[in-house]
Amino acid sequence: MKDAITMDLKAEAANILTSLGLDAAILDAGTMASFSPVNGQQIASLAADDAASTAAAIDRADAAYRAWRDVPAPRRGELVRLLGDELRQHKAALGRLVSIEAGKIESEGLGEVQEMIDICDFATGLSRQLYGLTIATERPGHRMMETWHPLGVVGVISAFNFPVAVWSWNTALALVCGNSVVWKPSEKTPLTALACQAILDRALARFGDAPENLSQVLIGAADVGAALVESKKVPLISATGSTRMGRIVGPKVAERFGRSILELGGNNAGVVCASADLDMALRAVAFGAMGTAGQRCTTTRRLFVHESVYDALVPRLIQAYDSVTIGNPLTTKALVGPLVDKQAFDAMESALEAAKEAGGTVHGGGRYDAGEPDAYYARPALVEMPDQCGPVTEETFAPILYVMKFSDFDQMLEAHNAVGAGLSSAIFTTDLREMETFLSSRGSDCGIANVNIGTSGAEIGGAFGGEKETGGGRESGSDAWKGYMRRATNTVNYSRDLPLAQGVVFDI
Ligand code: UN1
């Protein structure tokens, strides 16, 4: 047993919130408990919202939207520029709070805040580029064009594992597009949400004349999420979380003809081909599979290794699993921090049991003694599987990598695509044919397909999201902004005649 390190994380969280202008009394304002995965300490008991307060927040957001939509988009971009500026100033504090509340190692906590800064920069530029097309019309003296308008209130539901970045992807875009935001963060990470709200409030104060309640955060349980999802006054729900959650949210929003952007589970695979740079593949797979303690939606969960390089790669990978440093992310330089809670650890244990029953050979796994008896640190596990069966086809939100040998490229591709989720994928090869096939229409069926980089750690400039049980939504870069706006097709007649399209004659 290592020496328990005494840390008062509640006091540290209180200091961070105070430095952002919040009153530390909010930490004891109610009964909704939240814990740090780092040492299991209860760090807050917050006042919770309910269905009624959610409805009131939506009404306020609707009023904010009605004023905000009239503000020119580049001016709206200025607010997001200021948000990025405030995030730069408070990067260390917010990154630290992410580590306290989500258990991320320092560089990943900071990396998450960097991702927020990046999307703010992107969205600021975008605020001058919400382009619509001008389209040739078949009628003389006419002009046809597209205009993009804000939608209204955007409901954001986010998960514990990216407690701040996912909000910023949605909010930076929603705000420049002229919408208002109501955010329901994970019940496991309410403090980082309150910190984001405080940082946005600072930007709003500098901005000056934005409407009140442009972006609100609701701390609460499933009833808050349900009230948001069911409200006809929320035209768009952007929800990040499990496929199970998406199966509830998607149909509920569709029933009222709302729009949803769903970013759900992943069961991401890496493929290591015969020609791969094995040193590169080793590092990429190690980060993809063990980074963030396997708790990214983009985590590498399956690995297909060509039989000719299996023995050169897999023993080295097992060695990396043996030697990776695990520990308290606040007091050590370990690369792997804790799982979020006991439930996550139990899920990992049952998946490993199931893998053994399905014929897998487990390397690693089990609880790791980080000197924090009330926290759940796990040894990452690499499981050699005879084929893709048992728990391999499901996402377990923990550091488990299932490794399978392949000989035939096309058969491997079949197996690669034969799981429910379709988020991210990566091939390691120097063979042009393999690479292009993997990226082609008969290759990876995922929303993200990479070559010689891992499955996780996407940049914000690209559209982020995936197919099939991942939900089909796209967030972040490229033209994902279109999901936050509605398109109108406008045809203008500036002639003195009224020719009808398709040559139709209707003379009265
Ligand atoms: C998530 O886990 O929900 O690509 C998001 C990545 C990060 C985002 C992950 N940029 O790994």
From TrEMBL:
The keyword ATP-binding does not apply. Residues 30-487 form the Aldehyde dehydrogenase domain. It holds the Pfam family Aldedh. The active site is at residue 263. Its EC number is 1.2.1.3. Keywords: NAD, Oxidoreductase. One of its GO terms (molecular function) is aldehyde dehydrogenase (NAD+) activity. InterPro entries: Ald_DH/histidinol_DH, Ald_DH_C, Ald_DH_CS_GLU, Ald_DH_N, Aldehyde_DH_dom, ALDH7A1-like. PANTHER family: ALPHA-AMINOADIPIC SEMIALDEHYDE DEHYDROGENASE. Homotetramer. Belongs to the aldehyde dehydrogenase family. This is aldehyde dehydrogenase (NAD(+)).
